[in-house]
Amino acid sequence: MTYQELAEAARGKMGICKACPVCNGRGCLGKIPGPGAKGSGMVATRNYSAWQQVRLLMDTIHPTFSADTSTTLFGRALALPVMVAPLGDVNRHYGPEYDQETYNDVILRAASEAGTIAWTGDGLASSIFEGACERMGELGGCGIPTVKPWSADVVREKLKLALAAHPVAVAMDVDAAGLPFLKGQEPPAGAKSVDELHEIAEVCHGSEVPFIVKGVLTPRAAEKAIDAGADGIVVSNHGGRVLDGVPATEEVLAGIVDAVGGSTTVLVDGGIRSGLDVFRALALGADAVLMCRPFVVCMYGGGAQGVKDYLSQLQGELADAMEMCGAETVKDISRDMVMIAGE
Question: How far is CA 225 from CA 19, 146, 172, 188, 265, in A?
Answer without folding.
Answer: 35, 16, 11, 22, 11
